[in-house]
Amino acid sequence: MTAMMSIVVASPNAARRGEVRALLGDLPVEVLTASEALGDDLNLAHDGDTFADNALKKARAVAEAAMMVTIADDSGLEVEALGGRPGVRS
Question: What is the spatial distance between Cα 20 and Cα 7, in angstroms, rounded to a whole number?
Answer without folding.
Answer: 10
